[in-house]
Amino acid sequence: MATGDVRYCSRFPYLCLKFTLIVYCTIFWLFGAIVLAVGIYAEVERQKYKTLHGAFLAPAIILILLGVLMFVVSFIGVLASLRDNLCLLKVFMYTLGVCLIVELTGGIVALLFRNQTMDLLNKNIRKGIRNYYDDLDFKNIMDFVQKEFKCCGGAEYMDWELNEYHSCSAPGPLACGVPYTCCITNKTQVMNTMCGYQAMKLNRQAAQQFIHVRGCTNAVIIWFLDNYTIMAGALFGVLFPQVSAYILYMLCASNVLHY
Predict the structure, then answer these.
(1) What is the pTM for the complete model shown?
(2) For 208, phi and psi rounded to 5 degrees?
(3) Burial group, residue 103, by CB count within 10 angstroms (0-12, 13-18, 19+)
(4) Distance (Å, rounded) from C-alpha 121 to C-alpha 54?
(5) How far is CA 228 from the centre of its chain?
(6) CB under 8 Å to 16, separation ≥6 — which residues?
């Protein structure tokens, strides 16, 4: 066999690895571009209607940041694979490694300091409740969570006292009430949007006869604990692509050094 053929055969596994990496990163590069485009569109719409003053609760901001990160990191990965550039490979690996460390550290810190994490979540939900009727994005998210998880408010249903329309000192029919998405509903009945009328004037035992009094923060966490397989699947779906990409690029970098 000719020397060139031997050399090609010895490089064949590396060429397969390189092709796999190019395809892998290109898919995530395109996905990052789509996420970024959706985030920019959502942010333009948000600015039109002046919704969600707090960036913490704005899905558009989260999508833009996620899209930019995915687009830039994946683009570096594509260039590194195409050009066999050791410097770009190292940048990609280090960036991906930092992202993994931040994600894992954030998850561990959130678990270790779960009480502080709960307080932070409830604090931001209360901010959103204050602007519930002005922030359409937050309103849609809150309505969905309250209906799906059968809960009301952040820590409890009394959080709605912070809203200027639902406050017990406010004028109008909404005073001392909660949104209809907090109500215990019968699917066979026509929805009564005033079903939460005067709910905050009642004690917890009386109120729970017709509204959900449990806070949404606890309700969501309990749901995740009860559905731990879904949580494990979601965690695997987030971490596996990153870990596999990191391992593949370590192999690629070692092959670039070898050849």
Answers:
(1) 0.70
(2) -70, 0
(3) middle
(4) 13
(5) 17
(6) none
